[in-house]
Each structure stands twice: as structure tokens, then as C-alpha cells.
Amino acid sequence: MRPSGRELNEMRAVSIETDVTKHAEGSCMIRMGDTHVLCTASLEARVPPFIKGSGLGWVTAEYGMLPRSTSTRMRREAQAGKQGGRTVEIQRLIGRSLRAGVDRVALGERQITVDCDVIQADGGTRCASITGGWVALRLAVNKLMKAGDIVTDPLISPVAAVSCGIYAGQPVLDLDYPEDSEAGVDGNFILRGDGQLIEVQMSAEGATFSRDQMGQLMDLADKGVGELIALQQAAVA
Amino acid sequence: MRPSGRELNEMRAVSIETDVTKHAEGSCMIRMGDTHVLCTASLEARVPPFIKGSGLGWVTAEYGMLPRSTSTRMRREAQAGKQGGRTVEIQRLIGRSLRAGVDRVALGERQITVDCDVIQADGGTRCASITGGWVALRLAVNKLMKAGDIVTDPLISPVAAVSCGIYAGQPVLDLDYPEDSEAGVDGNFILRGDGQLIEVQMSAEGATFSRDQMGQLMDLADKGVGELIALQQAAVA
Amino acid sequence: MRPSGRELNEMRAVSIETDVTKHAEGSCMIRMGDTHVLCTASLEARVPPFIKGSGLGWVTAEYGMLPRSTSTRMRREAQAGKQGGRTVEIQRLIGRSLRAGVDRVALGERQITVDCDVIQADGGTRCASITGGWVALRLAVNKLMKAGDIVTDPLISPVAAVSCGIYAGQPVLDLDYPEDSEAGVDGNFILRGDGQLIEVQMSAEGATFSRDQMGQLMDLADKGVGELIALQQAAVA
Amino acid sequence: MRPSGRELNEMRAVSIETDVTKHAEGSCMIRMGDTHVLCTASLEARVPPFIKGSGLGWVTAEYGMLPRSTSTRMRREAQAGKQGGRTVEIQRLIGRSLRAGVDRVALGERQITVDCDVIQADGGTRCASITGGWVALRLAVNKLMKAGDIVTDPLISPVAAVSCGIYAGQPVLDLDYPEDSEAGVDGNFILRGDGQLIEVQMSAEGATFSRDQMGQLMDLADKGVGELIALQQAAVA
Amino acid sequence: MRPSGRELNEMRAVSIETDVTKHAEGSCMIRMGDTHVLCTASLEARVPPFIKGSGLGWVTAEYGMLPRSTSTRMRREAQAGKQGGRTVEIQRLIGRSLRAGVDRVALGERQITVDCDVIQADGGTRCASITGGWVALRLAVNKLMKAGDIVTDPLISPVAAVSCGIYAGQPVLDLDYPEDSEAGVDGNFILRGDGQLIEVQMSAEGATFSRDQMGQLMDLADKGVGELIALQQAAVA
Amino acid sequence: MRPSGRELNEMRAVSIETDVTKHAEGSCMIRMGDTHVLCTASLEARVPPFIKGSGLGWVTAEYGMLPRSTSTRMRREAQAGKQGGRTVEIQRLIGRSLRAGVDRVALGERQITVDCDVIQADGGTRCASITGGWVALRLAVNKLMKAGDIVTDPLISPVAAVSCGIYAGQPVLDLDYPEDSEAGVDGNFILRGDGQLIEVQMSAEGATFSRDQMGQLMDLADKGVGELIALQQAAVA
């Protein structure tokens, strides 16, 4: 029934390839089906002004799509002169989600910027960015710990995300683009490795939804995130 | 236990004053405690390019805060040369939420822009904007129907929103600013008059949350939105 | 003969409501007929770089119109990405006018920003902004003096403004929008409480004008500003 | 008593050199003492959208200063990414003033853009721009008339401008930069050849002013503009 | 003697992987040593306004670097709100170079946009972009020809580019980043498959250069471009 | 054969008038035929952040065209909100070229900004800017040396530039606009007084070129720059 032939609760094939660029402190290419996102974590000396001198660290994120990551070419945001509303919304979500898994005291007064650049898009880019972004962050923090710059691990728990939605009246896991563009309800679920919730965003897109349906989507998300966290752990092992 | 002395499930005093500006097709000033938002609905001939000729209507929203609506003065966004990420995120949410209550075929090829300008802020401005924005929209649509420009009512159901969160370990309804700035979990719930969900956004802010807690916040939101919808109905009667 | 039925030298009904927002150090809503402007005065620690260390204070102003303060919706300047030429011109005028009534030595090295936001427009918004802006400024300075932060009153004299013009061949006081859009000559007169002039701006808009007519408009302005200053004094008493 | 040794009612040496660039339909270099402004008038096919199809013409102006026209280098506005408030204010004044001398019906549906670029600044650049701008406009219109594109002369009367102010307590004509930066009161007077007023702008800069002083400055302006108009006529003869 | 141990006239290992994204009409990843650039060619219906209706086609290019393609993180241009001078210069060069190999009549009134996004940088990104960009362009044109949309091949000859410079006093081929940052003279040579020159840019960076040295660099470039064109041909075969 | 009737290897009439503005530390108006560029050199205390504290000086350039320097009016870049790609490319070239003639140690930690503003354009504005810019720079440095602020002359050698191209199949020196817009190959050659090359840029514009043709253009450039340097020397003597 799904365009891809997947089961309702079946994820796309996911792979996480680490250390894909030589410059970044941490990096990976995450592929969720045909959605490919390059995630890098950059360690930076400067922290934002509002925490200068506080001893606390900061994790932030930026998001972008290559102009031809999509089926028709999008205008390059650098050319347009500003990041669009959707981009801003997504990068704020990625940053907020990753910070929820970080002990900022243990990180110390340093900043890690996670860049998530979509090389090829087929739905679910924000979730792939969070899941891959955490891997890049983990690798960068590992480097800091190995070097002895940090003693206590500032990463409390892995963070991963998956989208679920109601497609053709059925709750389905990990929407691809053909599903996403038709889904009546669309949700993004960000969880930690211990099953705690970090962020939930559900939107009616044509159809509204009930609390029962919320529960069904949450069940799917639990399953999906569980699988993603296993893949993250394998990737950074 | 709450700074305001309210019960855990008690809303702030809410009032909705209609027809507050002489130019707009629909308008109201909504006051949720010390949060005051001026909402206007403007009927416009032009529709966005992507629906030109489709026969469908469009409802969109813009959001702004007066520079001194907050306890310390904020930089004016027109001065800064762009709308900040938070503004963009909020106005997209308002527009999406209001559209979920609109039959765009019945509206016909016209656009209604709902402007939500925060005169005074004390937490919950995006929820007040949605609730007040719907009242402005209702009044503007009434005018269209009275004039015979529209035959079928395009407003399917009222739309209202409330924030809930976990403050000092307890689920509380309708966060004010002192609570919002301390809450470990913060959620915005947008519902229709028939109890269906339109949008749910829950974020960990320091603390994560469980599915049980999600349910408790949803219960509070149900109660709060019920009260708001009664007030909306009274206001537009 | 005037669209409103007013005498040639008759002002619109004017009211000044003070302390209308809980956050600002000084605030008022000034209503000149259907023109309503919210004025707030914000005390700020920072002064502009060019007076840092000089011991002198600074008073500046910003001006904005809500998108639907006008009869057809205007584009939001924050959305457009810049303040328009008219906005820039008006806010420079407001700041310059208010500064002309301030002893910057007595104010000391602090800045007061006066925000004038037009809630509803019906002509004469810049004059209403100056007159209401001075009230907000007065209230903020009162607070500083009460707290003992300032010893000598830095406000030399009240500052108020009124527009006059030649409408249908006759000099008239306090143009409303229907008059303003038809007037052949349009002037803004900013005076101090002692009758001294601070700024005069007269523009031909279709018709030119003679020195005699300048005198007639000045006479009207004297009368109008006298009334406004009495209202300011009553408001801040 | 004046830094330059001039009489109180004495203008600086003024010259107007015409046809200084080969491309523009009309052009001149106006020199008022050490203030040198290059003025060009460009005939353009397009008119602004708000008059399309009206049969009316449009005259507009733009103003700029070369970065090193001033005693210390100013930031290039194209580099800064926007025109400053002062620039916007000035170019709106120039356009408005020139239009006051134009019969837009006789001009027909075409636009003339007058560019005023300050090559060297020593006070009074906006007045020099208006006076020189009118010469460029006159020359461009002459070309149109010679070509038979226009039958009735659309230029009703010459337009010229001069600044006057109160310097060291005395009313003086045509302020140069050392006077301008010290003047307590500063005014710009734009008149037509028939002595009618087009625009008057007087500002207190430290000192306020009385109606008597307004009259004295007006007297000086009458004298100065009379001289300028004679020079304009000679230049375009 | 070269940091990499290469011979003076030895290129880095070069590979060109085609069809790397599923959406673009043509694409490749070109790797010149550690410089990796993703090139996509997008066929677009619209042509720039200046050739509308001319029957001529257009090829243009855009260039970007991922924020962490470099050894320290660069600011994202979309965030900064504009493309930097270097970016603009490079993308103009790529577009100009590719157009020099295109018969715009044969292409017909359609536009192909070549996006060159640097995934990892180690010197020579503009040359890699041109060489890889031509491959993407070739593949996109092949698709058009296969579909019968174009009859005559609009690609006259392959286009490839290489950098040469004077490093440690010696002319060397294909500078990598350690060489580029130290080179006294730096040149980019763009040639066609028939040996004709399209663009030559040589810059003194510390040292100047003689005509003899120009000749030596040209010799190296001939050799390098010859090798690149062989690789292009193999890639698109 | 050339539109102007010049010989193939004949420059336009060139003049360099120095000290044309009273404010700049160095200035000239360079006229190459109908191309007129005003060049000023401004001494500034601040150096760019990346050399603060290094003891090294900096020379940079900015370029602009007056809106009606061209045959049809161009949009003012300050109005457009950004410098176009061509402007950015040119000003980077001017700065780079001038720096190649400067001993930055001898200059000491100060910045000289060379502004090149095109008053009238007829082809070759970038070359005229470099040639005239060097004269302005020379005069500013002379002032510093006379004042004893600099002991060793930081100007190693004069820098001048000329364009050459292939027009109607023939190599010609110093293209004017009619030639430039038709030329199949267009080159800019920047040399020092000792004959050393600083920058060479050759572009195919329709026709490609061979190494032989490169040599012919270089020969013309040698001749032209020799003449320009003699004029520079005369001007600053």
C-alpha cells in the first residue's frame, strides 16, 4: 500500500558512514533511503555572547539544502540573500534537540556547530539531520576527550529522530517524499536513547488528528528511534 | 505554588474585545492576563502565485512584537533588516493552524492575512495570537458572507491554542512568563472546536518528558481550549 | 466645509492615556481623532558610540505603523527587509524634535529610546508621535528623578507638534487623512512650551505657497500646540 | 565674523558648468564654493507602477556622496548594503522640490531621473543638488522639446534652493561646513522663480528660534535664491 | 620538494564519478586529490530576461562551499545574507568558461544551471568546478539529445581547467592548498579540447612574474588539461 | 579599421590631473579618451582585523560607477542594496594589483583605501582605475613621507594597466566601448614599471584564442603600459 512497498512500521534502509571529510572534528554521511545528509561537527573557540564567562558550552546547528538536492532546482539561499523560514525553523529544531542530550557544564566553555547539508532529498531531511548530527557531535566530543580537553563525557544519551504520519488513513513510519507530500498528518519525534522525549511536533496537513492517532504515531516513533539508536551506536563504536 | 497563585489547571483571565480598529475587515484585542495581542484580518484581492487560477483561497499570518512589549526593549525587526528565526517560526505556525480550520474551496480565490502584533508580552503570545487571530478571521469572513460574496461558510470549526508545561515538576495550564522561563517542558496545543488536534509542539527545555506527561499536558490543554472556544463564540456572537 | 465639519482652526478631539503598558519606563496612547499612536520610552544603559565617555545623554526615536493601521494593508517593514524612506524621515524628525527639549548634560550618559507605533492612522501620525512621545519621555524621566538617579530635570520645556495645511484654498488646523490627501500645502510645526520653534517643515503638494500663507499656518499652529501642551501637562500631572 | 570672511548676506562663489558628461540627456557640475555636485538628468521610458497608463509624467531624484567627498572617508553606501537615513531624506526632498516645478500632464508619460552625486562636500549639498538638478532637468526637457516629443513646456518655473541659518547669533546666508556644524538653527528654503515657496525646512540644532528669526532667514533666502535663479538662466541660455 | 612529494609537472590523482544524485539531469563528483566538488546540471525552462525570445540558450553557474569544507569552519553565506566577493568572482568564471564551449543557437532557448558545491577543499576548487561542471553539462545535454529535444550537439568541445603557479621559485602544476597558500604566482588556465584558450588568469601574490614564466606555466597547463580532458571523455563515454 | 580611426597599437589620449579634491590625501582624475575616473586615496588609522598587531600595512580599493556614467542609466548599487558581481570582481582586482607594488612592511600598520569612481564610461574603466589609483596612492604616500611618518618609500614600482583584445580579427591596444562590446577576446594586463607582470586576465568572448595571440596582446600591453607609466611619472613629479 505504501508507494515504496514498505510495511506500515518499516523504516527505509539506513546507513551511517563516518569520517567522510578530512577537516571536521566529527562527520558522517547519513542515508535514509534516498535522503542523504552530510553532517559535520566543528569545534570552535568562541561561544555566543550570552554565555561568555559562564563556563557553559554551546551546541548549535545550521541546515542547508544543495540547490539540486530536490527534484526541481531550488534557489540557492546565499543568492536569495537570506535563509528561508523553513530553513530557520529546521536548524533551530536540530540545535535544540541536540542540546537536550548535552551536559553543558561538562562540555565547558566551547562551542560545537553541527552543519547538516542535504545532498539529496527524499523526505525526512530534518530527522536525518538530527540523527546524523548526533553522530558527528559524538565523534567530535570523542576527540576532545581523547585529547584530555574534557574529562566527564558531556553527551548524556544519544539523540535520534524519525517522522511518522497518517498516509492514506494509516499510521506509517518514516515518510518518504511521495508519502510526505500526500500525508494528512505529519509528525517529527525526537527521542533520547533512554526513551525520554525531547521534542514532538505534529501537524495537521489537510486532516486533523485524534489523541488515539497521536498514540499510534508515538508507538511507531518508539520503534523507529530504537533502530536508529542501534545504528548510531554501531557507527561510533 | 504557581507565581501567580493560580491552580495548576487554571487559565489566566482572558478577554476578547472585538472591532478595535476601524480599517480592518475583522479585528480584536485578546488579553490573556498581561499578554495583549492585537489581531487584524485583512481581505486582499491577490493570492500567492502558487494558487493563482486554482479557485482556492489562502489564509496567512504575520507576527510581530512591539519593541517595548517585553521587559527589556528588543531591537525592532524592521530596523534589523529581517525577521528573526523565532518570529518566522511563530507566524508560520499561526498561518498553518488557522488554515486547518478553513475550507479553501468555500473561501474562493481570495486571501486573508491575519496580523498578530504583540502590544504587551507575558508568555503565551503565539497561543494568544492563534486564538485571537481566529476571532479576527471569523469577523472578516462574516463580512464577506453578509455581503453575499461567499455563500458557504468556509470556517469549518473554531481554532484555539493554549500552552501547557511542566513547571516545578508539575503539569500546569497556560504558562505566564515567569513560569515559561523556568519550565522544564513547554508545549503548545492547537485544537479545533470539535476536539480534534491541529498541531502539537512539545519541547524539552532542560528536562525531557515521558508519554505519561504528554497525556497530562494534553488533558490540561483540552480543558483550556474548551474555555477559550467558549470565549471566542461569545465574542463573535 | 471641512469633511469632518470642524472649524478651520479647530483641532480633532485629543486624549492622552498614560501608563498603558506595564514594561516601559514611560508610556501613553495618544488619540488625535482616529489617529492612535502608542508611545513608549525605554531607558537603556548603552549610549551611541559617538558620545561614549562624554557624560552626555541621548534621546532617540523609532517609528512604525502596524500593517493594518491604514485603510488598505501595508507591507510589514520587517518582512520587506528595511524601513521605508518615509519611516526613516519621520523617526529622525521625532528624535530631533524631542532632543531639542532635552538638557543632555543633566540627563547624564544614558539613552532613552522613544518608540512610536501607529495602531490606527487617520493623518497626522508624526505630530501625534512627537506630542505623545514627549509624554512618555516625561514619565520615564520622572521615574529617574524619583529614584534619585538624576538631580536636575533634563526636560527644559514640553515639546508638541501639529500639522496645518491649505485645504480647498483655506488654511486649516490639524489635517485628518481626507484633508491631508487633498491639501495643496502641508506643514508640520514643532514648538516648545515657551512658544519657541523647534522645527518647521512646509511642503507644496500641488500648490505652492506665499510668505503670507506661511504666517497664517504659523498662527494656527501656535493655537493648536498651545492646546496640546495643556493636555500634555494634564496627562503627566 | 564668518569663518570665510563673507558678509552675512553673501553667497559663496557659484558656478554652473553644463553638458559635463556625454551620456546624460542633461547634466551640469554645480560649484557653490567648495561644494561640488554633479547633476545628471536621465530620460527613461518606464514610469513608476502607480502612474502607468495615467498619461502623467514623473520626475524623481537620487543622491549620493562619493566616499571621500568629505573630510574623513565615509563608508560607501553600496558596500554598507543600504542608503542611510540622511541620504533617503535628501533624495526625497530633491525629487519633491523638482516635481513642484513640473507640469506632469505636459511632460507626458515618461520619467526623468535626476542623479545628484557629491564630488566634494563643504556644506549645503542638498541645496546645490536642487539648484543644479533643475539645470540638468531643464536641459533634458529642452532636448525633448527640440525633438518634438513634447509640445508644451512642462517646466513651469525654475526651482532653486539655499540654506540659511543662525550662526554665532546672526542670521547668515548659504552656510558652509564650518558654519553648518556650529549653527544653532539651520534652514533649507526651496523657491520657484516667481518667488513662491515650494518647501521650507527649519530645524533647531541646539538653539530654538522665533518667528522673527524665521522672517529674517526667509529674507536672506529670497535674496540668495534670486541670485541662483539668475545663474541658472544664464547657464541654460 | 613539493609538500606532497609530487613531480613539478604531476597532477594529483583525479577521479570523476558520474550520476551521483538522482534528481539532476547531469551530475558528477570530481575529486582532485583532497578537493572534492559535487557538480550538478539542472535544465530549466526559463531563460534570463535579456535573451527571452532570441532563440538562444544560456548556461550559467553557481558556486558554494560547505561551511566545513575548509580546515577551519567558514561562515555559511546564506546566513551572512550574501555571497562573498570570492564566490561571486568564481561563479562568474565558471559560467563564462562553460559558455565558451557552447553553441547557444544549437542549445535553443533553454537554460542549464551548473551548481558546483565544494564538499571538501584542498586548493584548486574553481578549476575542479569547471572540469567537473563540464561533465555534468555534457550528461544533461546528452539527455536532451537522446530525448530528441535537441538535434545538433551544442557542445563544441570539452572545457577543462587547471591551476599552475610558482612555488618555491619553481613552476608547478595543479597546486594543492599548502602550495597555493605559499605560491608567489598563481594562475588558472581554462582550455578547450582543441588546445584553444578560453580564459587565462595569472596573479602575482607576493612575487611578480615574467613573460618567460608565463610560458612555462602555460606549458604545464597544456599538459594538465590534456590529462583532464582524457578523464572527462572516459567519464562521459 | 577601428571605429575611432586609431592605429592598432595606438592608445587613446590620456591625461592625469592631480589634486582634484581638497579632502583626500591623494587624488587624480584620469581620462582615457571618454573614460573618466576619479581616484582618491584615503589614509585610515584602522587596519583590517586579520593584520592587527602585525606591523604590516594594507592597501585596498573600492570601485563604483555613477548611475549615468553609462549610455543608459544603471541602477544605483546603494539603492539595489548590494554591489553587483562585476563591481566586486573589479575592486578586488584593483586592490590586489596596487598591493603588488607595495612594501607592506615599509608602509607600517596603516591602511590606504583607494576609491575609483567612474564619472563617465567608454570602456577600460578597470584599467583606468588601476593606473589612476596608483597616482592617488603615490600622492598620499608622498604626504606621509614628507610628514616623516614613513621613512622608507613603500612604493616599490609604479603599477599601470591596459586592456588589449582581438577586434575584427586583429589585436588592438586600449579597447574603447564600441570595440569592447564586439571584441572576440578581451584582456587586462597589469604591469609594474620594471616590466614585471602583476596580473593577466584574458577571456574568450565568442572567439577562443591561441598562445600566439596571447603573445601579440602582451606585446601591445607592454607598449601601452610603458606610455602610461611615463604619464604617471609626469603627473606625480
Automatic annotation (TrEMBL), chains A, B, C, D, E, F:
UniProtKB keywords: Nucleotidyltransferase, RNA-binding, rRNA processing, Transferase, tRNA processing, tRNA-binding
Catalytic activity entry: tRNA(n+1) + phosphate = tRNA(n) + a ribonucleoside 5'-diphosphate
EC number: 2.7.7.56
InterPro entries in alphabetical order: ExoRNase_PH_dom1 (IPR001247), ExoRNase_PH_dom2 (IPR015847), ExoRNase_PH_dom2_sf (IPR036345), PNPase/RNase_PH_dom_sf (IPR027408), Ribosomal_Su5_D2-typ_SF (IPR020568), RNase_PH (IPR050080), RNase_PH_bac-type (IPR002381), RNase_PH_CS (IPR018336)
Gene3D superfamilies (alphabetical): GHMP Kinase, N-terminal domain (3.30.230.70)
Pfam family, one: RNase_PH
Gene Ontology terms for molecular function: 3'-5'-RNA exonuclease activity; tRNA binding; tRNA nucleotidyltransferase activity
Residue ranges constituting the Exoribonuclease phosphorolytic domain according to the UniProt record: 10-140, 158-223
PROSITE patterns: RIBONUCLEASE_PH
GO biological process: rRNA 3'-end processing; rRNA catabolic process; tRNA processing
Broadest EC class assigned to this enzyme: transferase
Chain sites annotated for binding phosphate: R86, G124, T125, R126
Description of how the protein assembles with itself and partners: Homohexameric ring arranged as a trimer of dimers.
Family affiliation: Belongs to the RNase PH family.
Function, in words: Phosphorolytic 3'-5' exoribonuclease that plays an important role in tRNA 3'-end maturation. Removes nucleotide residues following the 3'-CCA terminus of tRNAs; can also add nucleotides to the ends of RNA molecules by using nucleoside diphosphates as substrates, but this may not be physiologically important. Probably plays a role in initiation of 16S rRNA degradation (leading to ribosome degradation) during starvation.
Protein name: Ribonuclease PH
